[in-house]
Design a protein that fits this description.
Blueprint (H helix, E strand, L loop, with lengths): L1 H10 L12 H7 L7 H8 L4 H6 L4 H16 L8 H8 L4 H35 L3 H9 L1 H5 L4 H5 L17 H14 L5 H16 L4 H19 L5 H15 L4 H16 L5 H4 L1
Helix pairs in contact: 5-7, 6-7, 7-8, 8-11, 11-13, 12-13, 13-14, 13-15, 14-15
Length: about 280
């Protein structure tokens, strides 16, 4: 009862401060909900105010970003309009730690909001994070499969062209980035057709198999073996035949011993994971 009276009092309060281009009345209506006390939500939304960072806590925007999925879950997708502006403000924050925090949780927010709101409000932010610093991109990369599986097939296919960009990092010594890419590609095999796997994911997998760091190569052998299994089970047999021929040509007949060694390790993984019938393997 006391909450209801507090809500009634706050909803009728015409003195709520705002710094938006909307009129005070429109701004107030766009932020009003009846799930939690409005004063509490207003206090949370004010955490993105730059003056708060100077007077209260320099990390306050990061705390705001960290809590946002929980606030969104509490309010429900029907009240996303209360948080949308704040989310966009945080996504363009000057501090990379704030953007990084959002990048690590964008897949969770997508589950909360559903496919329509995700496509309209989260995909543009996601695309921005893909071009950000490595510290931000890694948050998107670690949950790439979790996010892409929530998108419609057509929207999901658009990202095939961008996966190659993950091979390029700010620091070439950042091998964990490439290792994470290989892990995610294994999961992504379930989301794409045999042709898409052969056309787009195969070149990336072959590149990772020749990586300078052994940890990246070991995950990549698993990736190639899973690719062989997936293409073998596809309705078009030519993909798996072409893939195996390329493995022989690129690695088995490589003039470097490391390439030939890679071929042996891929064969080992294919047998261990039972990716092909033995006659086909032979």
């Amino acid at each position: 009862q006391s909450m209801d009276s507090a809500l009634h009092y706050i909803h009728n309060d015409s003195d709520l401060s705002t710094n938006s281009s909307f009129s005070p009345e429109e701004e107030r209506k766009s932020k009003v909900q009846d799930v939690v006390p409005q004063a509490l939500l207003d206090q949370y939304l004010s955490m993105t105010d730059p003056s708060r960072a100077q007077t209260v806590d320099t990390e306050i925007a990061k705390h705001c970003a960290y809590s946002l999925p929980g606030v969104a879950l509490t309010l429900g997708r029907q009240n996303w309009h209360c948080l949308k502006d704040t989310y966009e403000t945080l996504a363009s924050d000057m501090q990379w730690k704030v953007r990084r925090t959002l990048a690590f949780s964008i897949h969770e927010l997508a589950v909360i909001l559903g496919d329509q709101l995700t496509a309209g409000d989260l995909v543009p932010v996601f695309n921005g994070f893909l071009k950000d610093l490595d510290e931000v991109r890694i948050g998107v990369l670690k949950h790439l499969h979790d996010f892409l599986k929530l998108l419609h097939v057509d929207k999901r296919r658009e990202y095939l062209y961008q996966l190659q960009e993950f091979l390029v990092t700010d620091n070439s010594r950042n091998w964990r980035f490439r290792a994470e890419l290989a892990e995610q590609l294994i999961l992504l095999l379930d989301l794409y057709s045999a042709r898409d796997i052969y056309d787009y994911l195969r070149p990336i997998a072959f590149s990772l198999c020749a990586d300078k760091v052994s940890s990246v190569r070991w995950i990549s052998y698993k990736l190639v073996s899973e690719m062989v299994k997936k293409l073998y089970m596809a309705s078009t047999p030519t993909f798996v035949v072409d893939l195996m021929n390329e493995l022989v040509e690129k690695f088995c007949r490589c003039h470097k011993w490391s390439g030939r060694q890679t071929f042996v390790f891929i064969c080992q993984t294919v047998i261990e994971d039972d990716c092909l019938p033995m006659d086909q393997f032979a």
